Amino acid sequence: VPFFIEEFLRSFKDLEIIKKEDNKFYIAKDVQDVTIPSTIQDVIMARVDSLPEGTKEVLQTGSVIEREFEYELIKRVTGLSEQELLSHLAVLRDSELLYERGIYPQSTYIFKHALTREVVHDSILTRRKKKLHEEIGNTIEEINKENLDEHYGVLAEHYINSENYMKGADYSIKAGDKAAAVSAWQGAKQQFETALDLLSEEDLQKKADVLQKLANVTNWKSEFETSLHYTELAIELYEKLNDKRNLFTMHMFANMLYIAPHWDGGREQEALKHMEAAAAIAEEDPDSQEKGLIYQRTSHIYLHQGEPDQTLIWAQKAVDLFTRLNIPMGTSWGTAMTYTGQIDEGIAYNENNCEQALKTANLFILGLAGHELVLTLALIRDIP
Questions:
Q1: Cβ-contact 338, 347 below 8 angstroms
Q2: CB 332, CB 372: distance < 8 Å
Q3: What is the pLDDT of residue 373?
Q4: Which of 48-57, 181-190, 270-279, 336-345 has the lowest mean pLDDT?
Q5: Going by C-beta distance under 8 Å and a sequence separation of 6 or more, which residues neighbour residue 379?
Q6: Region for 183 from its dihedrals, namely left if φ exceeds 0, alpha if ψ lies in -120 to 50, beta otherwise
Q7: Does pLDDT of 148 surpass 50?
Q8: Prior bond of 105 cis (ω within 30°)
Q9: What is the reported pLDDT for 383?
């Protein structure tokens, strides 16, 4: 039976317009005096309005929670006694507006139809609805302290609808982090974008951090232009905040995006700009293998750009740093030497690096050294 017809006939039964006798229905009132609802929404509201006031309020509260809600939650939100609440729920169950699932007191109540919940929800005054959303959010926090992570998304919705945007943003971020942790990139993106819209202009740190999260998520979704957009916005905010740690991270991330294979080398100039910015920040830090790799990556980009002089400058910085750290790391120095015509010196440098790398048994170091030797030998074919 279509939902409209079912609800229409049920409303007639509730209003005692039709009655059942001897297993047959008959009209008990003059239908000329009956106002026939013109829409399904009107039919539903006619049934709801015929309920006792207390029962109607319980139904409205349930509609603000979700289509499905637990007994314990609605009990705490309404503040009703056990006997009074069960009485109201029994009326709603008997009228088939709600279904009951589970065994009391672990019962769960479900709106029979999503449209019923929607109509009831829309009938509540805005001010009361906002207050209910806040109370529901607070109650969910209170009764789910041990497993709050299972409710991040729902909590975000309730606090947003209550116009508590600060808590709404916080839970949206947590829901996004949870989604990203299981590679649910689209869900994570939606949650982070919601949080970004909610955060105030004064909350620069949180906005910058959310932009960083969006840059990562959209990169995983292969939305590279979008990822670059969020990356550049994050860099702008981290510069305002003088947050050098995150600024360094985002410059390195931007470099990675710009040198990615899908650009086919067409955006190396932008990559170089971010690499040099990261290197400038790293200058202030103590010597480390990571710092040396930044110098090496910068020299390698210059090598791709066909600028051997700049390649030598940055490669020499990497060589000096790795020497101070006593790390046999391959760099673009030998390749750049070969590029400028100093073939013997370039080959000798890279061959020596490979020998030292073999002794370390470190596959990363060996791979980098071998890569530079291969590049050097390949260049020889093109040098007169």
A1: yes
A2: yes
A3: 65
A4: 336-345
A5: 335, 338, 339
A6: left
A7: yes
A8: yes
A9: 45
